[in-house]
Design brief:
The chain is α/β, with parallel strands linked by helices. The chain has 9 helices and 17 strands. The strands form 4 sheets. It has a 7-stranded mixed beta sheet.
Length: about 350
């Protein structure tokens, strides 16, 4: 009887020891996993499109990098590019963990890797997503604008046979949106026809940035061009008409920085314009933890970031240079998600 009691006691002690050992192992593994995540010394790479890679935006990019570093405690590398495809590939492959992409670029990156997810974007003047958009323009030299007149407005039909400059085949406002408008209004069946010399346009070229496409127009290399407002208006003055409406005339400032320094004083007229969803900051969610994503989003959507003049420039200050403009006291970053960009997907459906 004593032997049986002793055996039962031994079994109980062995089972207790095994349970304690297993618990210790699980605890150690959990601590190790958490520790490795927190103690990662790898920098976060943030990749930029060519439009936001210019030298005059260096301080603004660095200010954005500082917000990421403060939120995560990790160093940040800022990867500038001269090619849209390089930026898209960097975020989709995971060589970059964050990116600021145009809506079409984001949709393409997400289609390559659904781990790429939109996180936040700049708001409208009321601090919401409701009117969070910018504008895609189709423009011609001011002295040629009458050739495109059609009653009280302008016709895109007259673009047929002209030399035309897009930004990039992966640009939202520099290709996807204007090409959709031209296809709809001019009866073009495929956007591929807009990329080939002689199909619809006499010649097709690319500026590789919105600034570059505008310079193609103003330097006379193209007869017409597509580019947005947010990447070029800092170099321009509105000289007649209402901003971002057909017929508005813009002039390059006399002291404009490169690449507009070669076309100072040149003017263009808007003949077509379409609103576009604001560009998302996005994460490769396979490369950033949920906690890091949450901290970064919260940091950018804070009042402190909204008040940072190196991120949101005062539009009344001609010397201010930043990637975003403080259109009102309520302008800020707001959270968004993948579904918000479905209208851009539908353009290619």
């Amino acid at each position: 009887m004593e032997q049986k009691a002793w055996n039962a006691k031994r079994v109980g002690m062995v089972l207790l020891a095994l349970v304690m050992a297993a618990s210790a192992l699980l605890f150690a593994t959990g601590c190790s996993s958490q520790s490795n995540q927190k103690e990662s010394s790898d920098p976060i790479t943030m990749v930029w499109l060519p439009d936001n890679s210019s030298a005059d935006l260096t301080q603004s990019r660095e200010a954005i990098g500082d917000v990421i570093k403060e939120a995560t405690g990790r160093d940040v590398e800022l990867m500038t590019t001269t090619d849209y495809n390089v930026a898209i590939e960097a975020i989709s492959s995971g060589s970059a963990q964050m990116a600021l992409l145009g809506a079409e670029g984001y949709v393409q990156a997400n289609s390559k890797n659904d781990a790429v997810q939109a996180a936040f974007t700049n708001s409208d003047e009321n601090g919401t997503l409701d009117g969070a958009c910018y504008y895609s323009r189709i423009c011609v030299p001011v002295d040629q604008a009458d050739n495109y007149k059609d009653g009280d407005g302008y016709s895109l039909d007259s673009l047929k046979g002209k030399k035309f400059s897009f930004v990039s085949a992966t640009s939202t406002s520099g290709f996807k949106v204007p090409s959709s408008a031209i296809m709809k209004k001019c009866g073009v069946e495929s956007s591929d026809d807009l990329l080939q010399d002689g199909a619809f346009f006499g010649k097709v070229m690319f500026g590789d940035s919105h600034q570059g496409s505008a310079v193609n127009l103003l330097s006379g290399q193209s007869d017409a061009a597509a580019f947005d407002d947010v990447d070029v208006d800092m170099y321009l003055d509105l000289v007649s008409g209402t901003a971002n409406t057909p017929g508005a005339v813009y002039k390059v400032k006399d002291d404009a920085a490169a690449p507009f320094d070669s076309v100072c004083g040149k003017e263009f007229t808007i003949i077509g314009i379409t609103p576009v969803l604001n560009a998302p900051f996005c994460y490769n969610t396979d490369k950033l933890s949920d906690d890091e994503q949450k901290k970064i989003t919260e940091a950018f959507c804070s009042e402190e970031t909204a008040s940072n003049k190196e991120i949101f420039a005062d539009p009344d200050d001609e010397n201010a240079k930043a990637i975003f403009e403080k259109d009102s006291d309520k302008t800020c970053f707001v959270a968004c998600d993948d579904a918000w960009y479905n209208p851009i997907r539908e353009l290619g459906a």
